[in-house]
Specification:
By secondary structure, the chain is mainly α. Among the domains are: about 1-90, no CATH class; about 240-290, no CATH class. It has helices spanning about 20, 75-80, 85-90, 100, 120, 160-165, 170-175, 190-195, 210-215, 215-225, 255, 265-270, 275-290; strands at about 1-5, 10, 35-40, 50. Strand 1 and strand 2 form a beta hairpin. The longest helix has 15 residues, at about 275-290. It comes from Chaetoceros tenuissimus.
Length: about 290
């Protein structure tokens, strides 16, 4: 088939083989940049783009996939493959492999795409209902945990709906009890979330913290009867109808507040038969049971 190109008539071979269609002159090898001939419109094989200084593999251009390394003027913006991306995000050009990661359903914050120029990673880093909330982990918002220390408090902000509502209780609590400090370093980042969760963890069983937001009221009542039961790591296990061995199943802790007593032993105590003999028998029987 004859075709006029640049004032000359040339013969174009009809072929379906891309290796035949994408060609360069042997005399250019080693002396000039590789000259690449790229089909722009697959439906009309007579339209071709010519990129004399592009060193990309011919099959990489114009294949409907935006290859970031060829998204420049020299390669015709990847043979036109990157035109749509460039039009949508004209300033998102300093991030490697951006076209292939934007809008992939994952917030690529570490890749530098969570910025306005890149459309907040094509929307992947946006939080539903909070258009001005821009954080590293959008799925942390409204996940049931107050992420008040993450990213210097960015989640617990007005823009993020105070972590999607997860931090509302804590914020109200600290306004009412401003002297409740998170002073145990080993628990930083999680203890405030334990306040008001219905379990007495013991971390903030203080007056300044309203006895852990009321979680420890029942345990404190128990403690008034067993003042020496102060060595247990998890107060909420006391009296949970499960016999917890070790420090819980001791006389000081009322044999786990009775959870480790048999019905007969409870009956003895309930009847007021608390003589030294009965107490001795209970101690021996429980000691043997724990062995």
């Amino acid at each position: 088939m004859l075709k006029k190109r640049h004032g000359r008539v040339t013969k174009q071979r009809e072929s379906n083989n891309y290796e035949d269609l994408f060609s360069h002159s042997k005399q250019d090898v080693g002396t000039r940049p590789r000259r690449v001939l790229v089909m722009i419109n697959e439906k009309d094989s007579t339209e071709w783009g010519y990129y004399p200084n592009c060193t990309a593999p011919p099959t990489a251009l114009g294949n409907s996939h935006c290859d970031w390394e060829y998204n420049d003027e020299t390669c015709g913006y990847d043979g036109g493959d990157c035109d749509e991306f460039n039009a949508k995000y004209p300033k998102c050009k300093e991030v490697d492999n951006a076209p292939n990661n934007i809008g992939n359903g994952y917030c690529n914050h570490d890749d530098g795409l969570n910025i306005e120029e890149c459309g907040w990673d094509g929307g992947d880093c946006l939080v539903d209902g909070y258009p001005d909330c821009h954080v590293q982990f959008p799925h942390f918002i409204e996940n049931g945990v107050c992420d008040y220390l993450v990213e210097e408090g960015s989640y617990n902000s007005k823009e993020c709906g105070f972590d999607g509502g997860d931090c509302l209780f804590l914020n109200e609590f600290l306004m009412e009890y401003p002297n409740c400090y998170e002073d145990r370093i080993e628990n930083v980042g999680k203890t405030y979330n334990n306040i008001g969760d219905g379990k007495c963890d013991g971390f903030y069983n203080t007056k300044e913290c309203n006895w852990e937001g009321g979680d420890c009221d029942e345990f404190n009542l128990f403690l008034s009867k067993h003042p020496n039961c102060t060595h247990i790591p998890k107060p909420y296990l006391i009296g949970n109808n499960i016999c917890n061995s070790g420090d819980y199943n001791t006389p000081e802790c009322g044999w786990d507040d009775g959870d480790c007593l048999s019905p007969a032993e409870k009956a003895y105590i309930g009847a007021g038969v608390a003589s030294a003999v009965v107490f001795f028998i209970l101690v021996i029987s429980l000691h043997c049971r724990n062995q």
